[in-house]
Structure formats: structure tokens, C-alpha cells
Design brief:
The chain is α/β, with parallel strands linked by helices. The protein contains 15 helices and 17 strands.
Length: 446
Amino acid sequence: MELLNLHLTGDNHAVTAAHNLLAAMIDNHVHQNDDFFHVDRHTVTWRRVLDVSDRVLRNIIVGLGQREDGVIRQTGFDITAASEVMAVLALSTSLQDMRRRLGRIVIGNTTDGKPITAEELHAAGAMTVIMREAIKPNLLQTLENTPVLVHAGPFGNIAHGNSSVIADLIGIRAGDFLVTEAGFGADMGAERFFNIKCRASGLVPDAAVIVATVRALKVHSGRFRVVAGKPLPPEMVKENPDDVYAGADNLRKQVENIRIHGVTPVIAINTFPSDHKSEHAAIRDLAEQLGVRSAVCRHFVEGGRGATELAEAVAEAAAEPNSFHFLYRDDAPLKEKIETVAKRVYGAGSVEYDLHATRQIDSYERNGFGSLPVCIAKTHLSITSDPTLKGAPTGWVLPVREVRASVGAGFIYPICGDMRTMPGLPSNPAAAHIDIDENGEIVGLS
């Protein structure tokens, strides 16, 4: 567990180094005032990254000091998982494909408004060299000796939030079934898996598992206020199937989100010690109403034996005919892609664009990026763009305040709401409890 959570094989370090190399070459180009082209420093979008939560680095000024210390400009740091290099790693199909994607990264514009790439800054080659070993997936195993490929971790809010294509391409050839994760619900993780990752990999899913918990459905009932880091409300852990039924709309919509892509869903009821059998029965009843297979899962306590029912349900679902399809065409306008996801997946009634966002979309389409899929950056706390709204509201307005391009990774991401890409430490950081004992063993890591 310690190896998995601390450093592993250094993939995060490689992403951090490759990303910051490009940042250094950008500022060096601005400082040297290269005659080949001039970078408009006010358009540079490439910030630095660090794999440590550090809120004071969100907004910084670089270049202070003497003239030889560089050109003064405002920038900041993101968490390494939010780096486009991480998204590139996760979507590449080979070393050479990664080299091409790194070269396509757009960092800003020239003074005459043309996009500047990492290739034009002569940075992509060295970045690839740094990433040469990181592109290889990490082979681990469970306590029951099942092989597991652990590779890449693109930020689930502003990137596609899925494990790597290369790991999937290896895993699909190494067993009868490949199970791969797509995080942050069917409205975000699954939608991006289908419309971004499947486009890159060429693989087609046979079934999709929606993980549901009694707690989650009770939260979506809107009857309880849950605060991160604090105990659950006492009433929430009491036996009450009615609270489960009251939060059913969100589960119904997530099932629909799988089905609109032509994939067969299976509901995994992930259990907690505080659950009651009547509440599990309520979720099973909901699944039956929807015509969806379901299974109660106790694998956290019982290991593989506790997931046998789920495995059987997934195997049955995967054997059914598949009609998988993308939600939109490659050649559809960017606004049509955004509105398709917003209305069909999120349940929005319309989309409103800030003038700045509309100008960015127009610029991307003029520069030939309009064929890219969209990766809508919104809160993971709600199916809407408002983190306080629970269930599955309809008819609301999705606000697009800014649109950015991850051209190297291969998607356009509209930003809907306030997206924090550099977390801050809590009042009681986990780091304060981690140490080495007298035998050199790690303690306090959980």
C-alpha cells in the first residue's frame, strides 16, 4: 500500500518534470526575445505544477529580482494531476503517439495572435525523453493475486479522469475480462470514457458498472446536510428506506446516461457497516423497476468472495448485444457538442456562454481545433453545475464562463463554475501523522 501511494515508479515525478521543463522554456523564450516569433506573455496559459497541495501557489508573480531573472508576469501552480502532460500520458497509444501529442500542446499565442506549440518551442523532444519510462504501466496485484495495472491519474474535473489507454490495450489482451475505472459518476467519468477515451483507444465497452451506495442516495434525497471531514448526521445512518427512494432520481439519470451510449448498465450496491438490509432492498427494487441487473457488494470486507454476485451480473451483461455509439460527431460545431452533453447527460435546459467563452470557441474553430471532443469541467458534487443541487434537476442553465484547449491531449474543456486546480491542505493534514518507526517502516499512512 505504501509503494502504491508514495511515488510508485515515479510517474508523477516524470509528469511534473516534463511539464515544468516546458514552463521554463516558455519563460526563457520570453526572456531571450527570440527573433523567430514573439510570445505574447499575457496569453500564456501554461502554469507550473507540483504534486503537493499548496494553496499559496495558486497565483504567483515570476521574474522578480534582477533583469537577468526573467520577465515579470503573473502565473501560478496546479496540482500535477491537472497537468495536460498527465492527460497526454493517459490518452497516448504508444511512445511515438505521446511524442506527437506533446508536440501539439498549445501554450499561448504569438503577438500576432497565432497559437504556439511545444514543438515550436523545441521542448517536445526533451519532454518525451523525460516521459520515456513513465509511459510503461505499473503492474501490481491484489491480495488475492489478481493482476492490476496502475497507470496515470488525469484530474477528474478538468481532464477526462480515466486510467491510461495503454494499460487498457495491454489488459484487454491479458485476460477474459478487463475492468477499467472512470471516475466521478456516469455524468462525468463515464461520459468522458465513452466520448473521449474510446475515441482514442478504439476499444468498445461491453457493459458499465454504476457504483451506488445507500449513503449517496440518501444525500441525493436533499434531506441531509453532509459536511466534508465531519461525522454524518445521526438521522442519516438510521434505517429508513424512504430516504433511499427519495434520492432515486439521480440513480435513474445515471442509468439513463449509460444507456444513451448504447451500453448495458449494472448497479453495484457498495455496502457500509451502517447500512440496513431494507435499504439495500430498496436499491434492488429501483434497479428492478429500471430493468437493470444489480448486486450487493461486500468486497471491502470479504475480498473477491464479496463481489461474486457482481461478477456474475457483469458477465451476463457483457454477453448481451452491444450498440455502443458516441454522443456526437467529430465534425459537429463545438457549441453543439457542449449542448448535447449538457442537455442529454446533465439534464440542462440550455447553455449560456460568456462573451469571452464564445470568442475562445470561435478562435479554436478557426485554428482547426473544432473536431476535438469536449470535456466539460464542472463540479462533481452534483449532476448540474451547482454543487448544492442534489438529485437530477432538469431545465436549468449551464453557464460556460471560459473555454480552454488541451490540444495535445486532444480535447476542448469548457469551464462551468469555479474549478480549483491546486488544492489546499486541511486543518489536520495527513502528512502530520506519517513517520518512520525504529525499524524503518512507514507508519500513519492510511
